[in-house]
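BACKBONE GEOMETRY TOKENS:
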Amino acid sequence: METTKRLLFLDDIRYPIEAYHYIKQAIYLRKDWHIVRNYEQFINRILEYGLPEMISFDHDLADKHYLESDSEEFIEKTGYDCAKWLVEHCMDNDLDLPEFYCHSMNPVGKENIESLLKNFKNIK
């Protein structure tokens, strides 16, 4: 089991130092973040290394969440989808939710992620 990089930063384009510039929380200055850019990387990282100490979520993980392709709608997974997977993973494996932040600049997406995770933490 990996002992470093126990902080997981989910964001398609930004780095933790960039989140620090608008959130002003010192945690984002740490150098031991592991960055994942999408839903698949998020899940694979947790399945391979276990739950991190902390996760920081972005909501919007692509420029376009809905793309038309051959008249079929493609839906890009968001940080909220990652948070839902995390809750299910914790429930299925009787695990405590790691500490979390949401650094998303999407206010509705941020509220949705925080509400989901706080509600799960309160019932666990």
Summary: The longest helix spans residues 107-123. The longest strand covers residues 7-10.
